[in-house]
Design a protein that fits this description.
Distance between the termini: 84 Å
Shape: globular
Number of helices: 14
Number of domains: 3
Radius of gyration: 30 Å
Number of strands: 14
CATH architecture of the largest domain: 2-Layer Sandwich
Structural class: alpha+beta
CATH superfamily of the largest domain: Histidine kinase-like ATPase, C-terminal domain
Order of helices and strands: HHHEEHHEEEEHEEHHHHHEEEEEHEHH
Largest sheet: 8 strands, mixed
CATH topology of the largest domain: Heat Shock Protein 90
């Protein structure tokens, strides 16, 4: 007689990662047609921007949405990056959890190797069509064309076409994905994604053709490439016990002291000796021969020893000056403030916070402020309520800075607040990468950056409010001077000219402070104009130098 346990055992089998995400596509952000369209564009553009960064070339990315029918689109994304070697194309696009960034501790847009292959999987699921890829790695190299799908049972690429083609391009990649989606205008759409990406990538040019065939060009505002990042080793404060056990098993170091110095960031000879002494272990001990109890003591010693924070050269912040340029380019406001904080650490992971505020101009005065969230230069358009950035903004008291606020809600006023987090490992709340986890260290840094910008905003608002109030008083006073003069003349029997002269003197006493406000405003405008002129001159000189070199 077959037991229940034996019957159940027959049904057990391995689940492919592709099969898992096929049934749980919402975990990757493909939970509705509108968001799915935006996610496919996002994943392709992220790859393109990272590729151009690796090649150290100013990105020029073309995005096109072709509408086939009401709910079907072809997404085309083309870049001028380094291209992809023929052997790697099938795995990059046709295999989930395959990539070069997961084990690399430096700032990148992608992390898990899910993005573009997940878009291919979604296309296959909703349309049954193959994904088309063009790639060329050099001007004297052949261009390769692939059509492929994903074998979901094996999580392997299924190549349907592989051939050489003519493509008039020196280097780059182009991908065409047909998907089921819905196109809507607005902030949480492809339109909003492209615009926000242009703000935080001021070195890139984006050419966007929407389904209505309207062409929008977002020109770069700087010829300066982002800061080149350097890979760092894990920091002792950022590892778990199981991770330490695995590192000890895999190390090539022959001594414990050598292991600590070679495998971790910020551990030198003296610090390694201190850690070993605290753990009661010899520096010459063989790392692979440590038993579980010794490893636990070593782990505790690592956490208790004072070790420098990891270096910040693994990060590539936008920088306050370029962030302001990006805001000015896309948002029409009266006043702009930006700030870039120094690198900080959470769980041994370096991160850096940047904040920008645009105030006044064409921004809506009556509604809540608009919050723009970014991680590693990528817009976060969904799950705002679940994000640490939102918590930091709502917990900040905005009233002293000139914005209205009710309790711990979003402030109200004509402002846009932009928050960018750069990190070697952004702690997203899920695989869709739309909200940042609530780490106290991250929230604290965001608040400090917001307060720094808030103080400058307060000076601007209070200065202009005072000036507006003075103008209103003077305007009202001037309006009623003739009637006041006539009444006072009738009551006092004094001449009208004499009374009017005295009232004008009172009026003039109010004018100096108003003129001072106007002078300050003119100084601000002159300083901004001079700054813009210098920057334009710098860009022109750089272009001339490049042309001369060529």
């Amino acid at each position: 007689m077959v037991t229940v346990a034996e019957e159940l055992a027959k049904k057990q089998r391995e689940i492919s990662i592709s099969e898992f995400f096929l049934k749980n596509r919402h975990l990757l952000g493909f939970d509705n047609p509108t968001r799915a369209l935006m996610m496919v564009v996002k994943e392709a553009v992220d790859n393109s921007l990272d590729a151009c960064t690796e090649m150290k070339v100013l990105p020029e990315i073309k995005i096109e949405l072709k509408q086939i029918n009401e709910n079907r689109f072809i997404v085309i994304v083309e870049d001028n990056g380094p291209g992809i070697v023929k052997q790697q194309i099938p795995n990059i696009f046709g295999k989930l959890l395959y990539g070069s960034k997961f084990h690399t501790l430096k700032m990148n847009r992608g992390q898990q190797g899910l993005g573009i292959s997940a878009a291919v999987l979604y296309s296959q699921l909703t349309t049954g069509k193959s994904t088309k890829i063009y790639s060329i790695v050099g001007p004297k190299k052949a261009a390769h064309y692939f059509e492929l799908q994903i074998d979901t049972k094996k999580n392997e690429p299924n190549v349907l076409k592989d051939q050489e083609v003519d493509w008039e391009k020196d280097h780059g990649t182009k991908i065409e994905i047909e998907i089921e989606g819905r196109y809507l205008k607005g902030r949480q759409s492809v339109d909003g994604y492209v615009k926000e990406t242009a703000i935080v990538n001021p070195h890139a040019t984006f050419i966007y053709i929407d389904p209505e065939k309207q062409k929008l060009v977002y020109e770069r505002v700087t010829e300066e490439l982002p800061i080149e990042t350097k890979e760092i080793k894990p920091h002792p404060y950022g590892i778990e016990l199981g991770h330490l056990i695995k590192m000890l098993q895999d190390t090539r170091a022959n001594t414990l002291a050598g292991f600590l110095q070679s495998e971790f960031s910020r551990i030198g000879q003296q610090t390694a000796k201190e850690i070993c002494d605290k753990a009661g272990l010899k520096a010459e001990e063989k790392p692979k021969k440590l038993d579980h109890k010794q490893i636990e003591i070593l782990f505790k010693s690592l956490q208790e020893t004072k070790i420098m924070a990891p270096p910040g050269d693994c990060l590539s912040p936008i920088k306050a000056e370029l962030l302001e340029k990006g805001l000015r380019k896309e948002i029409n406001a009266d006043f702009y403030i930006t700030a870039t904080r120094s690198p900080a650490v959470y769980r041994g992971m370096p991160f850096q916070v940047e904040v920008g505020i645009a105030y006044g101009g064409e921004i809506d005065k009556e509604s809540q402020i608009r919050l723009m969230r970014f991680a590693n230069r990528v817009p976060l358009l969904y799950q705002q309520g679940a994000c640490a950035i939102t918590e930091a903004v709502t917990e900040t008291n905005w009233k002293p800075y000139g914005l209205q606020q009710s309790g711990n809600n979003m402030p109200t006023g004509p402002a846009i607040i932009l928050v960018h987090i750069a990190s070697v490992w952004v702690p997203f709340t899920n695989e869709a990468k739309e909200a940042i986890a609530h780490y106290d260290e991250i929230i604290k840094e965001i608040k400090l950056a917001l307060q720094e910008c808030g103080r400058k905003l307060s000076i601007y608002i209070h200065r202009h409010i005072r000036a507006a109030e003075q103008r209103e008083k003077i305007s009202l006073f001037e309006k009623y001077i003739p009637e006041l003069v006539a009444a006072l003349s009738s009551l006092t029997n004094n001449k009208k000219d004499s009374i009017q002269e005295r009232l004008q003197r009172i009026l003039k006493k109010e004018l100096p402070s108003l003129e001072a406000e106007n002078d300050l405003k003119k100084e601000d405008e002159s300083a901004q104009d001079l700054k813009a002129q210098r920057e334009n001159k710098k860009i022109k000189n750089e272009k001339k130098e490049k042309q001369t070199t060529l």
